[in-house]
Specification:
By secondary structure, this protein is α+β, with helices and mostly antiparallel strands. The chain has two domains: 154 residues, no CATH class; 131 residues, no CATH class. It contains eight helices and 14 strands. The strands form five sheets. Strands 3-2-7-6 form a four-stranded mixed sheet. Helix 1 crosses helix 7. The longest helix has 15 residues.
Length: 309
């Protein structure tokens, strides 16, 4: 069994695995909206106190994978996209905000859901010069922002969690899928992932994440294929293996050991309630060093392959 296949199976065993098309992201600000799109409240969604305050994880529609271009997320994003403000000087901020507004104008056109309509009205009326105290503080700049109808906010029903929004996201995410091919991980036909979700939490890696499978230079391609078509892995399998690996790499994870500059993650290959069965189910181990992954042979026949940088 390959490392990717083992990770994809591990995703199925995660106790609180996010559904396909969603991921856990750190959110720092929640904006409560009235039905007319005006702001009812601005809440800092963080844990801790003072300078130790940190954004809290929240399940949101899966983020786009950004390289050098401008690409807004659906119903959430950082303040430069959502509000047109950032902590530093960024010449692209106005373009990012315009792209966020344009995407939602197109996707939400004709919606009759009160929450989605409120977001449209907010985006049409909002201007960056409204980002002033006391509602908006400098600590909120560059945080991820989500929305909620004020009547739903106290019940923690976010805009992206409304039934209409979830149904719309299913259509939007599915509409970008490529033609079906046989997946190299599952062996089942399905839409191929052109770009795989980023892997984050690797020691010494980029904050935006890295990739295990990527083809970003012409020298890596063959037979005229582009991006993920060179090694077809379905959208579902790519989502599964990256979700599992990101979960194992999270800070405080019990599936991770940091040894020097190597981030080593491990997981059982199957469930077992008895220690005897757990010992037989040898762990798969993946060692990630500065984003460079290489196969390493293991003597045990019961363990999966190991990556060691």
């Amino acid at each position: 069994m390959s490392i990717l296949a083992s990770l994809a199976r591990a995703y199925d065993r995660l106790p609180d695995a996010p559904p396909f098309g969603y991921s856990s992201q750190n959110v720092g600000v929640i904006v409560g909206l009235k039905d007319d799109g005006s702001v009812a409240s601005v809440t800092r969604w963080q844990d801790g106190e003072g300078k130790k305050r940190k954004p809290r994880p929240m399940l949101v529609p899966q983020p786009v994978k950004r390289t050098a271009g401008i690409a807004p997320n659906f119903l959430w994003d950082k303040t430069s996209y959502v509000l047109g403000v950032t902590a530093g000087v960024d010449k692209r901020t106005a373009e990012e905000h315009a792209a966020f507004k344009d995407r939602h104008e197109k996707v939400l056109e004709g919606t009759d859901d009160p929450g989605l309509k409120a977001l449209l009205l907010f985006l049409r009326a909002w201007t960056p010069d409204r980002f002033v105290a006391p509602d908006w503080t400098d600590e909120m700049r560059d945080q991820n922002v989500v929305f909620a109808l004020e009547s739903d906010r106290l019940d923690k029903v976010w805009l992206h969690g409304r039934p209409a929004a979830k149904a719309l996201w299913t259509r939007v995410a599915g509409g970008a899928a490529a033609d079906a091919q046989v997946c190299l991980v599952t062996g089942e036909p399905g839409p191929v992932a052109r770009l795989h979700p980023a892997i984050k939490g690797v020691w010494g890696g980029q904050s935006s994440g890295g990739s295990i499978v990527s083809f970003n230079l012409d020298a890596f391609t063959s037979y005229g294929h582009e991006q993920g078509d060179n090694a077809p892995i379905s959208e579902a399998a790519a989502f599964a293996y990256t979700t599992a690996l990101n979960r194992f790499l999270e800070r405080g994870s019990r599936h991770r050991i940091q040894i020097g500059d190597a981030s080593t993650v491990f997981w059982a290959m199957r469930r077992g309630s008895k220690w005897r069965r757990r010992r037989r189910a040898c762990s798969s181990v993946c060692s990630v060093t500065r984003g460079r992954l290489k196969p390493k042979k293991r003597k045990s026949r019961k363990s999966a392959s190991c990556w060691k940088g």
